[in-house]
Amino acid sequence: MKADTIFYNAKVFNVFLKKFEKKNIAVKDGRFLWVDSGDMAELEAASSVDMHDKFIIPGLIDVHMHIESSMTTPSRFSEAVIPHGTTTVVADAHEIANVAGLEGLENFVDSHTVIDIFYAVPSSVPSTNNTMETTGGKIGMDETMALLKNKNVICLGEVMDFNGLVNDENSVISGIVKTFREQRPNFPVEGHIPKVEGLNLARFLFKGINSDHTQQNPKSIEEKISSGVFLQLQKKSVSKENMDVIIKNNFCEYACFVTDDVMADDLRNGHLNQILKLAVCCGLPVETAIYMCTYTPARHMGLRDRGCIAPGKIADMVVLDSIDDFSITSVYKNGKIVHNTDCDKTQAVNKSVFPEKLFKSIQCRKLTLEDLLIKVTDDEDVKEAVCNIIEIEKFGTFTRKTKKNVPVVKGMLDWEKLNLSLLIVMERYGKTGQITFALTNILKEKGAVGTTWAHDHHNLMVMGTSPEDIITLQHKLLKEQGGYGVCAGNEITAFCPLPIGGIISDEPIEILGENLSRVRQGMIDLGYENSNVVMSFSTLSLPVSPTIKVTDKGIFDCLTQNKIPLVEELI
Amino acid sequence: MKADTIFYNAKVFNVFLKKFEKKNIAVKDGRFLWVDSGDMAELEAASSVDMHDKFIIPGLIDVHMHIESSMTTPSRFSEAVIPHGTTTVVADAHEIANVAGLEGLENFVDSHTVIDIFYAVPSSVPSTNNTMETTGGKIGMDETMALLKNKNVICLGEVMDFNGLVNDENSVISGIVKTFREQRPNFPVEGHIPKVEGLNLARFLFKGINSDHTQQNPKSIEEKISSGVFLQLQKKSVSKENMDVIIKNNFCEYACFVTDDVMADDLRNGHLNQILKLAVCCGLPVETAIYMCTYTPARHMGLRDRGCIAPGKIADMVVLDSIDDFSITSVYKNGKIVHNTDCDKTQAVNKSVFPEKLFKSIQCRKLTLEDLLIKVTDDEDVKEAVCNIIEIEKFGTFTRKTKKNVPVVKGMLDWEKLNLSLLIVMERYGKTGQITFALTNILKEKGAVGTTWAHDHHNLMVMGTSPEDIITLQHKLLKEQGGYGVCAGNEITAFCPLPIGGIISDEPIEILGENLSRVRQGMIDLGYENSNVVMSFSTLSLPVSPTIKVTDKGIFDCLTQNKIPLVEELI
Questions:
Q1: Are the beta carbons of A304 and B1 separated by less than 8 Å?
Q2: What is the Cα–Cα distance from A445 to B257, expressed in whole angstroms?
């Protein structure tokens, strides 16, 4: 037997011993053949590499994430994360599924990528139901069964519908979970369990939920792990006190790190490696942090062929100059170099191929200024309308409902008078063309922001303080067949094209990220105040996220799922 | 939501915290619904049980074992192990597969049992090939594919053929392993890796082997676990120094305890609980020992629905009076009591149903005294023959080859003169009727021992110092259609009927064990000296176990797989 390559003189991380050891590594056919401290004289090799005492760890594995959160394609995503050491992800591609259903999801699954991308069956497409939102596709029982036939589909994606699962045995989600557990009992059923505890937590887990990736605190970590939940800790859960709980209880066996959502502009700076570094900053030993980005996630997902540097496992390696600053010098996938800082040798990737129709997915009419006239009455004596206003929080994605008296002129709402923003969600799949109007008070300057990346249904959404800017931006979104843009003074000041399904782009992440960062700045320039303006705006349309959100079907109270009128009362 | 039962006031073992906690447990539909320290006032329950501060641990899980080693059926096995706390096993039923192929194995898989029995695809049926042994059935690629369709089949059984897997890409085992890894990448591929280390170990693991259950020492434990092998520690691997290695390295995450083979008479005394107790005696903390008999094996096998007492998991529980002596007072399966020492309430089991033809599986002719005359020459002047003699070791199942000059009278071997034992293996599947003669020197007294439980091909094997006793016993084995017996003075002194396929019995384990213990005593009375006479004799026919063994096809050097003649030379 002859090895392809022997890597000599490395400090190799052994996940089972949780320590680095001076070793040589032999690789054959893309897998580790032998890891040994001897000179490997017994083994011939076609080539050899001197690692000069560098550190080698397994490729990083991110088991809960959404590629579309980075507005990119699987191939471009792969290209973007390789320099950061990520070599395997498990993607829940529920955004493309909302836009293009099973077929769109299969375009993702079939994409050629350098890293290995496994997929979850998205469990909540649409996020609610078709009386609350119109989507391009859905994932029901038939689609679930079709996806289960694909070998790259390895889990059920985050189950969010607590009520549907716990209280209604006949709900779609109950059916999907039941089928999944019968058909693939050894696959994980991923959960989304924010702030659920006690008997409610137990009732959710009773249905077969295995994991949670929402924000944790020390108490929730202890309660969930001791209840059998595998925790996927994203950036916002990485804190000093949370890491202390992990260390104290040796919970590294039941928890891993994940990215969940990384914006396209952030992706230029790092991926799972950033969270790993943050965890170490918060006091987690680096060996434990590496373990929780490699072996633990692989084991949780049943990926028996990776997560460690050991014979027979896929030869994915990250080479580090130092484990103190976690500086990555090169990355190997299947035993072959795919990134090297010295010569910037990042392997070329095949571009994803999506069908032509996905590039023509914004099927709605051009709006005119007249469309924006909101007539509330025929009675010309009415002077004011008590309107429900969406107040947007400055942190996170939550909103609150307030009331304001808006002037009425000739039966029309004069929302501009109060410096309010008009928010429009327009059905864009060529089904109804329905438009919902709502009012917010977020923008301070004249202008508009708009996108077709509007969670989860991704209808066309524009919000502005100026009707002209709204119209200009809506036309731009139609012309470009999707994107994220800002308009001011009747000019497009920033635009990030998202031509594939209106939600993703095939540009390299450097260009895409730059475009998005300009949009972000443009929004800030309009006075949009939020810790993440891009996500804040895009989730104004998400009817499962508290408290009051807007879809093509109307304004909804997300807790009660009841419709809320724009106008409460005429005065 | 209403629970079926709430168990109050228990000291419940939490595998994630690795400690006992005072809790109440609610069960519904056979699964744990809620485990909490509060009074559970929020939850209604149809019934409640006061546990009076008893200890509750998850049902024990044995992931590497062979039911046929206990010469019993799945249903009787289930009945036998419940009082010992075993509620789930993963069985490699390669003995019934050798006898009856896919159909016989499916009879096992389809058996109704109280405990949950999952199955491995046996990877080595036959143990060698049909030039070395005749079997009733085989498991090749077609049978593997058929078995993979069964939801109770969850892994590939112990791969033993190192040479076939490592050196021959076209071997049957290479094909099966490759297919298995492609078709079911998330299933474990179980290995049998005795005394393999260094590059050879790496080459075996390179092919995708995930585990090992052979005898370990501290060095092999460290090498194998750090090479990514999941270790299944059976009784002979449980020692003070091995437990020290497990404790020192926190290897409890990568190792579990298994029984492998438990003889029918031993099974009356205990099962996996015996090994757990032994491990604790050897210094392993009881919490770690319980973990390695519950959560670790379940996780290794991808059995996400068990191995811990947590919401949503199958409600299998073992109740203990004390964790010091591990005294089991009751056992619950799917939330229902199936064993209780107070009133001896072991739940009745359905008997297994095997097809009629499996009760008529010994298809060979009656031997006569004339058949036992071993003619070695026509030359009446020949006085002696140099014969190869099988020396049987006093510990374990190994043999050695020696030579002896055996008198020749009228061309016939006079083996009785030297107090040798004649060993006969006779093809019994109605295929060839071929007989192999060999000589051993194990029995000290006049008599014979014989069985159809002769690993792995299970042909008819009789060995004796007296031709008459050999004949009597062979006729008895035919009449009873299988069993294990001893004959002396022309009378059957002990007999354990094994009428199903000639290898198992549907008698309750108390009766079967008693029968087998009498056979064991009968063999000892004939002067058979070995640490386990039943296993020693039965493996004289196993051509993959060192060093010289006998099949219906001849005497073989197991290392070279070359045939060895009975007579080397005539003098």
A1: no
A2: 69
For B299, residues 6+ apart whose C-beta sits below 8 A from its C-beta are A299, B307
Asked if B203 is an interface residue toward chain A (Cβ–Cβ < 8 A), one would say: yes
B227 vs A313: CB contact, 8 Å cut-off?
A: no
Tell if the CB–CB gap between A311 and B228 is shorter than 8 Å: yes
Write phi, then psi, for A516 (nearest 5 degrees).
-65, -35
| Rounded distance between C-alpha atoms, residue B189 and residue A375, angstroms | 69
B154 to chain A, any CB pair closer than 8 A? The answer is yes
Sort strands A230-233 and A211-212 into parallel, antiparallel or unpaired: parallel
Helix (H) or strand (E) holding A42: none
Which candidate from B201, B208, B308 shows the least CB-CB separation from A228? B308
DSSP designation for B375: B
CA-based R_g, chain A, Å: 25
Distance from C-alpha of B374 to C-alpha of B388, rounded to nearest angstrom: 14
Instruction: Please tell me if residue B205 touches chain A, with a CB cutoff of 8 Å.
Output: yes
Kindly give the confidence (pLDDT) of every residue in chain A, 571 residues in length, as a single tens digit, with 9 standing for 90 and above.
899 999 999 999 999 999 999 999 999 999 999 999 999 999 999 999 999 999 999 999 999 999 999 999 999 999 999 999 999 999 999 999 999 999 999 999 999 999 999 999 999 999 999 999 999 999 999 999 999 999 999 999 999 888 899 999 999 999 999 999 999 999 999 999 988 999 999 999 999 999 999 999 999 999 999 999 999 999 999 999 999 999 999 999 999 999 999 999 999 999 999 999 999 999 999 999 999 999 999 999 999 999 999 999 999 999 999 999 999 999 999 999 999 987 665 555 556 689 999 999 999 999 999 999 999 999 999 999 999 999 999 999 999 999 999 999 999 999 999 999 999 999 999 999 999 999 999 999 999 999 999 999 999 999 999 999 999 999 999 999 999 999 999 999 999 999 999 999 999 999 999 999 999 999 999 999 999 999 999 999 999 888 999 999 999 999 899 999 999 999 9
* Neighbouring residues of B357: CB distance < 8 A, sequence distance ≥ 6: none
Distance between first and last Cα of chain A: 88
Is the Cβ of A41 closer than 8 Å to some Cβ of chain B?
Answer: no
| Structure letter (DSSP) for residue A70 | G
Contacts of B253 in chain A (CB under 8 A): 253
How many whole angstroms separate alpha carbon B214 and alpha carbon B229? 12
What kind and span of H or E run contains B120? strand B116-121
Q: What is the ipTM of this complex?
A: 0.94
Q: Which tokens in the block code for residue A439?
A: 């009012």
What CA–CA distances, in Å, run from A368 to A438, A465, A470, A473, A475? Answer: 17, 16, 9, 11, 9
How many angstroms separate the CA atoms of B396 and B442, rounded? 14
**Integer Cα distance of A12 and A19 in angstroms:** 8
Probe site for chain A from B34, B230, B304, B313 (most A CB atoms < 10 A): B304
Judged by CB atoms closer than 8 Å, whether chains meet at A151 and B226 is answered as no
CA distance B348 to B495: 27
A228/B311 CB distance under 8 A: yes
Rounded CA-CA distance A30/A9 in Å is 20
Phi then psi dihedrals of residue B143, to 5 deg: -65, -40
> Distance of CA A220 to CAs A254, A521, B36, Å?
14, 36, 14
pTM score, whole prediction: 0.96
The model's pLDDT over B172-210, given as tens digits with 9 standing for 90+, comes to 999 999 999 999 999 999 999 988 999 999 999 999 999
* DSSP sequence for B402-450: EEEEEEEETTEE-GGGGT-EEEEEE--BSS---EEEEEE----SS-EEE
**Which of B326, B303, B304, B306 has the alpha carbon at shortest distance from B314?**
B306
